[in-house]
Amino acid sequence: MEKLVKLLEQLLFNMRELEAVLSDEQLLLCAGHVDGPALQVITDKKSSLLSTVQHLDKIRLQGESVLRVKAPYSSHDVLTDLWQQISTLSESLRDKNQHNGLLLGYHLDHNEKALAVLKPRHAQSLYGPDGQSRSNAISGRRISI
Question: What pTM was estimated for this model as a whole?
Answer without folding.
Answer: 0.77
